[in-house]
Amino acid sequence: MLAYRAAVHESTGYAPAFLQLGRNLRLPSDADTPVAPADLVGSNEYVRSLRERLFAALQTAHESIGHTQQHQTTVYDRRSNGPVYEVGDHVFLHRPKAPPGAPAKFHQTWQGTYVIIMKRPNNTCHP
Fold first, then answer.
1. Which domain of life is it from (predicted)?
2. In this structure, how many other beta carbons lie within 10 angstroms of the beta carbon of residue 12?
3. Which of 79, 96, 84, 89 is nearest to 114 (CA)?
C-alpha cells in the first residue's frame, strides 16, 4: 500500500499521500538520504502554508481528473459504437456456426462479399 500511496497517479498528477497529507511520503529507499533542515516557522505559518499547498494541489487534481475523464469517455465511445455502414458498402457476413448437418471443420465463418441495399432505423443492414 505504501507504493500505491506514494506513486503519482496519471489522472490527478499527484500521489494520494500528497493530496491527503500535503507532503510526499518518505520511503524506505530515502533512509540513506539526509533530511534537509527545516526552516523553523511558527505553527500558524505552517498551517497556513499547508492549507495553501493542499488547496492548490486539490484544485489541480480536480482539473486533471476532469480532463482524464473526458479523454476516457472519448476513447470508450470510439470503441463502443460499432462501425457505421451505409447503403452501397461492401461487407462480409459473419456466421460463426456451421449450418445443421454441415461439417464444422470446413465451415467458413466469414462469407461474402455482400453489398448493403437497405439500412433500417435500428442500425441493422440488409445485404
1. Eukaryota
2. 19
3. 89
113 phi/psi in degrees, rounded to 5: -95, 150
DSSP symbol at 72: H
DSSP 81: S
Grid cell at residue 65: 481528473
List pLDDT tens digits, range 50-80. 889 889 999 999 999 999 999 999 989 888 8
β pairing state of 110-115 and 125-126? unpaired
Q: Structure pTM?
A: 0.49
Cell numbers standing for residue 83: 462501425
Spatial CB neighbours of 104, under 8 Å, sequence gap ≥ 6: 97, 98
